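Subject: sequence -> structure tokens, single chain

Hey, anyone have a minute? Need the predicted structure for the following. Not urgent.
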Amino acid sequence: MDRICQHYSFCSGCSFSSQSESLAAKLSQAQQILEFKPILVLSSGPHFTRSRTDLYWDHGKLGFKDRQTFTVIDWQECLQLVPDLWQALQLLKQILGNFPAFGSIRVRISPSGLLGVWFDFSNADIKQLLLSEEICKKLLENFVVEMGQRRKQMLWNGEQNRFSLAEPKAYEWIETETSSGRFGLLSYIGSFTQPGFKNHGLLIQQLQSWISSSAEHKNILEYGCGIGNLTILLLDRPSVHVTVIENDRLALACLNLNLNKFKSSDVRISPTVDAKLFTDLDLILADPARPGLDEKFKSVFTAAEKPKQFILISCSWLGLKKDCDFLRSCGYQLNQAYLLDQFPLTEHAEVLTNWII
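Reply:
Had a minute. Here:
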């Protein structure tokens, strides 16, 4: 039986009180868009799934916003988070006290138990935080700390006898499965990764099943590779060449770190979509941002030779609708579909679709 959080009636974090109700709504939405059955569900349960969270800080309050007043709720519990992450939030709140700032905060825990926090505050609030030596000292005793839109890492500068910001260092905030065992993926606290370890594992298992179903996959294009989470999955096969498209500077920095760690040279990295990338492909794996495949990709792909298989990962209903209509217009047929319940009790989900031509 689903537990109901004490904040459910007013917190913007959850839209449903039960997972069955939530999944029914998501499946209905997915079926309307895909016009396909069955859509299977991947889920690790309704509670305690998230190992990272993005929330708000408002002068001592830490939580999501109230649905009606839009003020920050001072969380007393959150059933979405794994217990160790909840404990990290309590520690962070204790350290910050009533620090006078408003902004968003990301907190995450690594598979090894390392804690990280990213303060996406204004420059003025970051400057004030760096001058709060006691707070900064306690933060560094317990967390890896990043600050600002450029995600600079906070360090103690012994020469200048003060806390300052430097280029961030990558840590293994998430891991994936390979044929050799678990592989720790290097990223920054502010990097995009899947929100929870268990659901991430379900994603990898399903993609492995689709990718390994054919021995013909020798030339693969990955669109929106990020830090290389799925790139490692693609490379974990003999005689495979992978081309990736990614233009985020910090994501590319982590991608190169992970490729070096994986000891792979069978990768071509392109920051832009180019027609030459679409030659002799066997598979495209696309994990676009919320809006879906961008117009440049669609324009080039429309004129290109089509690979036999196209795997699409969609994280918004609008993006899913647009991209499914586009793939059908290119001659693809939907072969399988899964709904990954990454965000239980909310209206959000990731939809995995496998298309063939």
